[in-house]
Amino acid sequence: MEYNELFARTELLIGREAMQSLATKKVILFGVGGVGSWCAEGLIRSGIMHLTIVDSDKVAIANSNRQLPATTQTIGQLKVEVLKKRLQEINPFATINAIPEIYSADSSLSFQLEQYDYVIDAIDSLAHKTHLLTAASESGATVFSSMGAALKIDPQQIRVAEFWKVRGCKLASALRDRLRKGVKLQKPILCVYSEERLSNIGTEALPDADEKGSFRKAQTNGTMVQVTAVFGFTLSGLVIQDIVKMKSASKREQR
């Protein structure tokens, strides 16, 4: 088995030079839950060879409806370790760095965002997310972010827009409120979002929905895989498209 064999169908579409460019880019992904886990899969299956995944949580039973690492056999295991094993089975040539930590203002410098070409935000904590977007926007990396994927059921309503143009998303609205009062973003950030707004109606399931994660959520909301996975794959698609476009532009300039 060779690298070229794994990605022959991708190379057929985007060409060898773009594949070679994919293989050189360094990507860091924060959060490998309902959105981030599928993003990681999309990146590795597309030919990304250098991926760092960051998440401190362990697999919980309530993750099983939407998160890639969650099966009845992985309950209690670190999400990043479960996902790393799967990703390396997909592409054993890839370098996967699994960091079981929380991104926060206190830990931010340890991640050395400046060494990456792409920073992907798929974390839930409002405070941590605000800090990450601010810090990432000050780095040289291209940044993509997931807005709220909960309380939605229709993947056809998923959209992409620049952060300040996202509409109908409570998480984006809360982030903008914080950013207006603090440090401003230093570059445009494309976000995956949906304007769909549903409500929890099966509240009798609430006691079983607690995932006992790394931070206390203000509210536990229902989520479904057909939405979270499309969010994640869209994020990975944004990375791949950006790399391919840059390579195409570079080829045109050389002519």
Description:
- With 255 residues, the protein is an alpha/beta fold.
- The chain has nine helices and seven strands; from the N terminus they run αααβαβαββαββαβαα.
- It has a seven-stranded mixed β-sheet with strand order 3-2-1-4-5-7-6, sandwiched between helices.
- Strand 2 (50-54), helix 5 and strand 3 (95-99) form a beta-alpha-beta unit.
- The protein starts with a helix and ends with a helix.
| Structural classification | alpha/beta
What is the count of helical runs?
Answer: 9
- Reading side by side through the largest sheet, how are the strands ordered? 3-2-1-4-5-7-6
General shape: globular
Runs with pLDDT <50, length 5+? none
**Order of secondary-structure elements:** HHHEHEHEEHEEHEHH
Helix content: 40-55%
Task: Tell me about the largest β-sheet.
Answer: 7 strands, mixed
Report the radius of gyration as a whole number of Å: 18 Å
Averaged pLDDT: 94
What is the strand content? 5-15%
Total number of strands = 7
Termini separation comes to: 35 Å
Q: What keyword list fits this structure?
A:
7 strands; 255 residues; seven-stranded mixed beta sheet; 9 helices; single chain; globular; alpha/beta
Quick structural summary:
The protein is α/β, with parallel strands linked by helices. Helix content is 40%, strand content 13%. α2 (8-14) packs across α3 (16-24), α3 packs across α9 and α4 (36-46) runs parallel beside α9.
Task: Write the SSE topology.
Layout: H1 3-6, H2 8-14, H3 16-24, E1 26-30, H4 36-46, E2 50-54, H5 79-90, E3 95-99, E4 118-121, H6 126-138, E5 142-146, E6 158-162, H7 170-181, E7 190-194, H8 206-209, H9 225-254
Parallel strand pairs: 1-2, 1-4, 2-3, 4-5, 5-7
Antiparallel strand pairs: 6-7
Helix pairs in contact: 2-3, 3-9, 4-9, 6-7
